[in-house]
Amino acid sequence: MPSLDVALVRALEPWAERVRSRAPLPLCICWGDEPSAAVYLCAPPHEPTVRLTLRSPKALPALLSPSLESLGEAYVEGHIDFEGSVSEIIDTAWRLAELAAEEGADSAAAEAAVPAPSVLDRLMQRMATAWQDRQRARHTPGADRAAIEYHYDVSNAFYARWLDPAMVYSCAYFETGEETLAEAQQKKIDHILTKLRLAPGHTLLDIGCGWGALVLRAAERFGARCVGITLSQNQYELARERVRAAGLEDRVEIRLQDYREVEGRFDRISSVGMFEHVGLANLPQYFRRIHDLLADDGWAMNHGITSTDPDDGETPYGGGRFIDRYVFPQGELPHIGTVLTTMQRGGLEAFDVENLRRHYARTLACWSEAFEARAEELRRMVDEKRFRIWRVYLAGCRWAFEHDRIALYQVLCRRAGRPARELPWSRRWMYAPASG
């Protein structure tokens, strides 16, 4: 009987040949830590830059019928490992998923690409036996107890390792492209507050205030009186600490509150990176709530991620399903057309629309690079599954923004049906330097 490595190569080679003939990839596939054989998806003389190691028989179906969801799940659950730069790994995963989708249109080609069920079943059984032997040796009572006791939730300290010092967890604004991440995040906040024409004495509601960076800036540099709301206990506590440390408790209030529970009227409203969680069916009600909270002559800014599918479809090749399952449960991305339509239905008129897709690609590149640079430290802060989720999520979203799979729009709006005589005629006012 041939060794497991040899059997694996024989089973995968027809599939690998099909991939090589359509679009060679810089990938080799191995079983175990010291394989005696490997399957190459690149054609000589090219060398692979990404190595995929199968750690479980559960990896085979994901590999042979790859999607971003199946590959992402296999990685997060520890069924496969990757070696190589994270950008090359993500690029390879996207290409595998694209090829599988292309071949799916031809059922005969799809059937020929997968080993016969009997061969696959026997191979998976052999891999399962080898996998169980390795797991028994690895799972001592002490190791399992430590894993169970390890705190799973992501902490403020975890985010602080790869965000900017102000911990702004949304798309930055690179005015020249030469800024550091910290500079670009402050410019993003100033860009929003300048677009809103925020002035001393104005009241500002920030829906989804994160760790408080925007309301702190609005109070300190623009002279506003602010309310920031969040549903995160960790964000709430740290934002309140930051307000106290800045001596701004008389001008900034942080609340642990849902936007539907807020009462009163505000001169300005900002919503940054929050409406993605509202749900497509609820967007008209969401914008109606902003309308009701906005002063008659007020202005609002909605800054959020959108789908590039005009039918509000999810990120292709299973990417959206992976994010829904592992990162943002129940999140939904509308197309910008849907945003503008539901905004109007909610009683708001859009005055300015700006696409910052490339800015978010750059932001995610900064986050992903910081994450990779601190990988070993981050691994010690969370369990391996959480680490893998965030690693692949940051790099994968960077790829999606770079390739127009998702976008980011800022939409400046106000109550519909009202005059706007106070606005300058050109857009030059949006780029004035921050006051204060």
Properties at a glance:
about 425 residues, alpha/beta, Rossmann fold, 2 domains, methyltransferase
Describe what this molecule looks like in 3D.
The chain has 436 residues and is an alpha/beta fold. The protein has 2 domains: 4-145, no CATH class; 158-431, 3-Layer(aba) Sandwich (Rossmann fold), CATH 3.40.50.150. It has helices at 4-22, 59-64, 68-76, 86-104, 107-113, 117-138, 141-149, 156-160, 181-195, 213-222, 233-245, 283-293, 319-326, 336-345, 357-373, 375-381, 384-402; strands spanning 27-31, 39-40, 50-54, 80-83, 203-207, 225-230, 252-256, 266-272, 294-307, 348-355, 406-415. A 7-stranded mixed beta sheet has the order 7-6-5-8-9-11-10, sandwiched between helices. Strands 2-1-3-4 form a 4-stranded mixed beta sheet. Helix 9 (181-195) packs across helix 10 (213-222) and helix 15 runs antiparallel to helix 17. The protein is elongated. The protein starts with a helix and ends in a 21-residue tail after the last strand. Mean pLDDT is 86; it is low at 138-153.
In short:
The protein is of the alpha/beta class. 47% of the residues lie in helices and 16% in strands. It has two domains: 142 residues, no CATH class; 274 residues, Vaccinia Virus protein VP39 (Rossmann fold), CATH 3.40.50.
List the helices and strands and how they pair.
Elements: H1 4-22, E1 27-31, E2 39-40, E3 50-54, H2 59-64, H3 68-76, E4 80-83, H4 86-104, H5 107-113, H6 117-138, H7 141-149, H8 156-160, H9 181-195, E5 203-207, H10 213-222, E6 225-230, H11 233-245, E7 252-256, E8 266-272, H12 283-293, E9 294-307, H13 319-326, H14 336-345, E10 348-355, H15 357-373, H16 375-381, H17 384-402, E11 406-415
Parallel strand pairs: 1-3, 5-6, 5-8, 6-7, 8-9
Antiparallel strand pairs: 1-2, 3-4, 9-11, 10-11
Helix pairs in contact: 1-6, 3-13, 4-17, 9-10, 12-14, 15-17
